[in-house]
Amino acid sequence: MYCPQCGHQTDGGKFCEKCGAPQPGQGGAGQMQGQGAQAGAAAKQASKQFALFVLDVLKKPYQTCKTTGGEQLVSSIINMVLFCLVPPIMLYILLSDGFRDVSFTAVVIKPALTFALCVFCLYLLIFIALKAGGAQVSFKDSLSRFGAFLIPFTAILLLALIFMLLHTTVCFTILVVGLLGAAFAVPPLMLASYQHQLTAKADITYFVIVIYLIICVTFQFTIKHYIKELMNYFFF
């Protein structure tokens, strides 16, 4: 066969002996197909691992989460992304019923990013509390465990989304339970899961109280900010 790049006669190797160009069926497209197959297999494996992990957490939330480590980081991050996307999507569906021109970027993307920042700040508060309490915990392991503890509340938010699509008002009650439950249940659960590592004299209760105060102040300013943003967006 001849090299399509320089016309040199080759013996059928992967590359031309003269110019080094990949030969048809050997490099180039064949290599890209191999890489695509590997990426597809990796994505399939990750989705399977995520599904199995979610099922394990939903069956035994605390027992599974307290043993979760860095090996579940990808699954935990996927869950945190879902957690941050569901409320803005519900808001988008709600506003789309009453307003014709609703910006997906303004109503979903920007709030989701802000929500993600708030969730990450909540994790940082817990991580700081763990370090202040003397726990020898890594950033990766604690972040994975934090995402695992959010799984039941993500399931609640998805349930609220389903009820919204069914046009039932109970969806808002379920949404509040999911959001407030995550904000006020995850911190003590996280600290309790590392209780055997806490060596500081300060009781774990005081760490939780401080985190709750910060959460309440953040909620107050965030709600005021987005109410003003929505009013400006739709009425001005």
Shape: extended
The counted number of beta strands is: 0
- Reading the helices and strands in chain order gives HHHHHHHH
The percentage helix is over 70%
Briefly summarize what is shown.
Keywords: Membrane, Transmembrane, Transmembrane helix. This protein has 8 helices and no strands.
Task: Give an overview of the whole structure.
The chain is extended and about 75 Å long. The chain is mainly α and 236 residues long. The N and C termini lie far apart (70 Å). Helix 7 (170-193) runs antiparallel to helix 8. The protein has 8 helices and no strands. Keywords: Membrane, Transmembrane, Transmembrane helix. This is Permease. The chain crosses the membrane at residues 73-95, 107-130, 142-166, 172-192, 204-223.
List the helices and strands and how they pair.
Layout: H1 29-59, H2 61-65, H3 73-98, H4 104-132, H5 139-149, H6 151-165, H7 170-193, H8 204-235
Helix pairs in contact: 1-3, 3-4, 3-5, 3-6, 4-7, 4-8, 5-7, 6-7, 7-8
Protein name: Permease
Transmembrane segments: 73-95, 107-130, 142-166, 172-192, 204-223
Keywords: Membrane, Transmembrane, Transmembrane helix
Keywords for this entry:
transmembrane, 236 residues, mainly alpha, 8 helices, single chain
